[in-house]
Amino acid sequence: xxxxxxxxxxxxxxxxxxxxxxxxxxxxxxxxxxxxxxxxxxxxxxxxxxxxxxxxxxxxxxxxxxxxxxxxxxxxxxxxxxxxxxxxxxxxxxxxxxxxxxxxxxxxxxxxxxxxxxxxxxxxxxxxxxxxxxxxxxxxxxxxxxxxxxxxxxxxxxxxxxxxxxxxxxxxxxxxxxxxxxxxxxxxxxxxxxxxxxxxxxxxxxxxxxxxxxxxxxxxxxxxxxxxxxxxxxxxxxxxxxxxxxxxxxxxxxxxxxxxxxxxxxxxxxxxxxxxxxxxxxxxxxxxxxxxxxxxxxxxxxxxxxxxxxxxxxxxxxxxxxxxxxxxxxxxxxxxxxxxxxxxxxxxxxxxxxxxxxxxxxxxxxxxxxxxxxxxxxxxxxxxxxxxxxxxxxxxxxxxxxxxxxxxxxxxxxxxxxxxxxxxxxxxxxxxxxxxxxxxxxxxxxxxxxxxxxxxxxxxxxxxxxxxxxxxxxxxxxxxxxxxxxxxxxxxxxxxxxxxxxxxxxxxxxxxxxxxxxxxxxxxxxxxxxxxxxxxxxxxxxxxxxxxxxxxxxxxxxxxxxxxxxxxxxxxxxxxxxxxxxxxxxxxxxxxxxxxxxxxxxxxxxxxxxxxxxxxxxxxxxxxxxxxxxxxxxxxxxxxxxxxxxxxxxxxxxxxxxxxxxxxxxxxxxxxxxxxxxxxxxxxxxxxxxxxxxxxxxxxxxxxxxx
Length: 707
Description:
mainly beta; 3 helices; 52 strands
């Protein structure tokens, strides 16, 4: 990497793999007389322009397609409006303390925000002249039964269709969460409990079923996981012999462990290179080797039989990239994909070549936005509302139409994934915007009767529960009975436990380097499911590869959950469509998530992830140490902020000025860190992740901190 600076120390050019033929990728920036970045040119010399007011507040962004996003501000620097090519015009007002008071979006939906005496967000009421209002509330400082040690903390939330409450220990650590969700058969009340050791490490998770996961530590490092049907029963070992890569201030990613099968231990080992990158890991009966180019991009997956070491070329994949690290080609022994993009990263073409020939499909992007309007071969039409939410995606009888609530979430879907059967499904979200209930409303046959057999296997209502990090802990029936519960290791899906606590069935998950499940085995070591997919996820898993019975897993890439009724993917704050490789809604945080508010991980799903549907993160060579399982709750509640690097509301004027200074300092620090390989590895290899880790939580940081 080559780095260049101007006389004031501003970074002006970064070149990856300098002098390497075919690479030599340079990004350049220039600055005005006040050292504000005024433009950035990507490796294709496509430019993004920035304009500011006299307070140094960003007021205008012109992207490489010459689409303009504007942030008019008042004398206090508050963004009184947002004009976006993707979401339309939004108007904001603020109270005397600088808290966001109202937001009127381009659909005519008014969001009214209320705060308590400490400027903590207490409610949001969404209203529209033609629809019933929609309210979400946050309560603090409650005491009494169910609210232990609640002073100074979030203690409960209410949202359409349910509520949640939180209890803490004297040190402020969350010890239980209880959610009550209204279903068609009553209320499902589900409680999750957490236990800690004297050092604050999680040692016990009690699932809503009563099942208990125990985490054993030695010298401060997790060494084993075991599961028990309840707190009074003996525990069954799940994983033993955990070992981790070293990392500053703690431990890095897990390097090896042993799964405890019915026949004994099965070793699982991941190999890292000297840069901390994963270069080898097992996938059931195969071993995958990863190779990187001089710019750190993944060039290939090469596979070998896990027992004999014989090459398995039918599993191999080879990747090609453009100058902006977007995948433009994927080659396997059977298929070859080619992708093309416009200057903003919108996919404009995908073609697939195999023994049957070549099939191409063009994506038509709106001239005045990043919205996808249509595809050809065969014709497929999409439509968005004024705020950029896709509400219709139809290819003849195949596709879906949807309804978004006043908060912009998809709450009802009329879908036909195959053109022969039709479904109506409703969705409920909690105050953290997590989907907590899926309710089938109806199913009908619109084709020949023999084509509608899938209707009988369609899922019933499901209630979902998440942990403190937002990872899916379990799925439950409308009466609260357990259907499936999950075990995680540093964000990696590790095991699935199906059925009641008295007769559980355990499965183990082989995940890849980005924590996407690829293979599932049972406790007998038999392969039950695999998904060696096209990089954007547009392929169907094999749910009975060896004939031992069908097994389905709906987890997809990090943060994703596949929906059978539509083929769409729930992705926390948005909905993802693997068939087109993009989101169906504009990014709730606007340009803070990237210059294209619909793009998925900037076109590079083999090296980047987006755990919450807001912002992509490059897989770091040596990640920030993460507890096992995570113990740091996501900041509650979260407020959407469409302003790039904007300060999340609510904040007092003094806090806003403090956060403004902190953000500038963090941005300067992280720009330098980006150029320091050691610090880049520690901080995740991305400016965005670095700044979020540097900032205090009240300024929009994630509370990780850097040192």
